[in-house]
Design brief:
There is one protein chain. By secondary structure, the protein is mainly alpha-helical. The chain has one domain: Up-down Bundle (Rhomboid-like fold), CATH 1.20.1540. Helix content is about 60%, strand content about 10%. The chain contains 10 helices and 3 strands. A hairpin with a 1-residue loop joins β2 and β3. The chain is globular, with a radius of gyration of 18 Å.
Length: about 230
Amino acid sequence: MIPLRDTAPRYSTPFVTVGLILTNILVFFYQLTLDPYSLQHFVWEYGVVPLRFAHFVAGDVGVEAGLAPFFTHMFMHGGFIHLLGNVWFLWIFGDNLEDQLGHFKYLAFYLLCGLAAAFAQTFLTLGSRIPSIGASGAIAGVMGGYLVLFPGARVLTIVPFFLLFTVEIPAVVILLYWLVVQVGSGLASLGTASVQDQGGVAWWAHVGGFVAGLVLVKLMGRRREVRRYYHW
């Protein structure tokens, strides 16, 4: 299923969402300018490496190397499809959340969800030497917040079934289905390889970010009442 747009109205310009999207795109373009060795060093230095965090806790690594990547990793991506998928979901779900939380609280919400996602992935793969990068954990938090505030919204979605066709699906169905896939994939990944050698999708970052979004959106509150039913 590929979401195209939602039916939830917004009443303000999503400056922060647009800024986050542009920042991710600019960082990705910078990555494209690097040669393979420099790119590898860039990802290692600014991505979250669970084993490096373990050394930080043990006092063997400084604060800059041990903690700064928990912020910087969420603006980096491993390829064009990785970037496109993230910014697309951020645009669909983020503008409405920003409208309800307000610009400043929304930015804080986004960053906190990204941090929660990174810590969840780190603690569940603590011996891994594989850097984690990408905005998907923070965006998972946005999706969790959207689920709380806009469960009655509908999402126009492309559904592949022999031929491609579009259908409006309740946001709660899409988001809970997505969460079940992440949890299931995360559980399956625990038994496929040792955490030191395991790469691929950071499933637990998605789950951690989503759960953080569910909680934080309640704690932060919103600045206007949300309409529970939406029409084109």
